[in-house]
Design a protein that fits this description.
The chain has nine helices and two strands. 36% of the residues are buried. With 274 residues, the protein is an all-alpha fold. The protein has one domain (8-268). The model has no long low-confidence stretch (mean pLDDT 89). Helix 5 crosses helix 6 and helix 5 (112-133) packs across helix 9 (248-268). The radius of gyration is 18 Å and the shape is globular.
Length: 274
């Protein structure tokens, strides 16, 4: 029997896991949804352990368990602290990605990499948990996912068709400025459809569009940061849990950067009150 191509594997995985994810967001509530997040955090932390240079199973397992404990402990940390730390990290990444790999090599050391994993994973997972807990949490979380998926699909199609100018050749040679533009346009279209079909009385259209641009920019940074750590570790994918897609981190890298900013904007704009 002929082996499935990479594209066919990706399509099949998306066909199976996509509806399952959507059902989980709509049907699972409260602590059960938090437990689902923990079940996703466990392999994500395991994969980050590998990116952090931990090649032995035991240290990676211990690191994953520590992150699970930190996730639950983060409920007792002021939310503004978590979001501020996350946003400062992602904004700093905008700078150091430009000079990678010539400078800031200490970020990839065995001492710093595990801490970076905590900064990336804990605030984003906590943000997803809090968004889902809101009265309109299902819709808000769907909107975020649609923005990210729209950006990914738009970037892929535009990059394949028009891509010529590299975005960050030393980090991720496959990404192009044309792909970024395509992803931005796709996400803006998603936002406009949501704005005019669902109605977003709390937000004016210009503010919505500016917010979408910021979210997409940071989602690209999230993708590039994981690419930099994979390149430093000498691996193509963070794992092989999802056929055709790689690991959990390969699927949520954009989301880890976008979720804290998204929640911050929801709070600042008065859409949610925590």
């Amino acid at each position: 029997m002929k082996e499935l191509s990479s594209f066919q594997k990706r399509a099949l995985s998306a066909f199976v896991l996509g509806p399952l994810l959507l059902w989980s967001i709509m049907s699972i509530q409260g602590e059960v949804f938090s437990l689902l997040l923990v079940l996703l955090l466990l392999p994500a932390a395991w994969e980050w352990g590998r990116l952090a240079g931990q090649t032995q199973y035991r240290p990676r397992a211990e690191y994953a368990l520590v992150l699970i404990a930190l996730f639950y402990m983060s409920r007792f940390v002021p939310l503004e602290w978590l979001l501020s730390i996350a946003l400062l990290w992602w904004l700093s990444a905008l700078y150091w990605l430009r000079v990678y790999p010539e400078r800031h090599g200490w970020l990839f050391s065995r001492m710093a990499s595990p801490v970076v994993g905590v900064i990336i994973l804990i605030p984003s997972w906590r943000a997803l948990e809090l968004i889902h807990q809101q009265e309109q949490g299902v819709g808000l979380l769907f909107f975020l996912l649609l923005l990210i998926w729209g950006a990914d699909i738009g970037a892929y199609l535009a990059g394949v068709r028009f891509g010529s100018r590299k975005l960050a050749p030393k980090v991720s040679p496959g990404k192009s400025l044309e792909g970024v533009a395509g992803g931005m346009v796709a996400s803006i279209v998603v936002a406009l459809i949501g704005y005019f079909s669902v109605g977003m009385d709390e937000i004016t259209l210009p503010i919505l569009l500016l917010s979408v641009v910021a979210i997409v920019v940071l989602s690209i940074v999230g993708d590039l940061v994981e690419s930099a750590y994979k390149r430093h570790a000498g691996i193509k994918d963070s794992g092989n849990l999802i056929p055709g897609h790689g690991g959990i981190l390969d699927r949520v890298d954009s989301l880890t950067a976008a979720a804290p900013l998204y929640l911050s904007l929801l709070i600042l704009l008065g859409v949610v009150t925590l």
